[in-house]
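Invent a record, attention on tokens:
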Amino acid sequence: MRVLVVNAGSSSLKLRLLDGGDSLVGSADLDTHANGPNEGALRAALDEIGLADAIGHRVVHGGVRHVAPELLDAAVVADLHRLTDLAPLHQPAALAAVEIVGRLRPGVPAVACFDTAFHAGLPAAASTYALPARWREPLGVRRYGFHGLSHAYASRRAAELLGREGSGLRVITCHLGAGASLAAV
């Protein structure tokens, strides 16, 4: 199985084609903007990389309803558009990539993986801002946590390198890129 990974960030679009053993088969890095990638450039990159059996999209914000990888369909995409105000630099570019890649690779199943999903289990004491509930609740204002896919990988990899998988290892992970965050895992 070959999986195309589409990672739309605030300033770039990274494409990686992986085989069943997680080995890199092809890749491309494109510039993007708030409205998403240039369709012509994306088409050329996909043609160069090759065909995939499935597509995985990194989507920054899943809100409180999307807390695990999900097969993308019209209803899920519409719901993700409603979360754009919570991630205005990332959500439009990711959803534009979902639309364009879907149009260029029709019939290939696509799954969204959410950065916020990693932090979905935060207890109320950690996710609630000290604001009146009448402000927080209707607007969905809470701590969601970001860069979760990066923090998940970094914490798993640290445990692997230390030979401590499944041992309850406690680490602080750092995501450094166009955006930056720390997480106590």
About this structure: Strands lie at 3-8, 12-18, 24-31, 54-59, 70-71, 110-114, 172-176, 180-184.
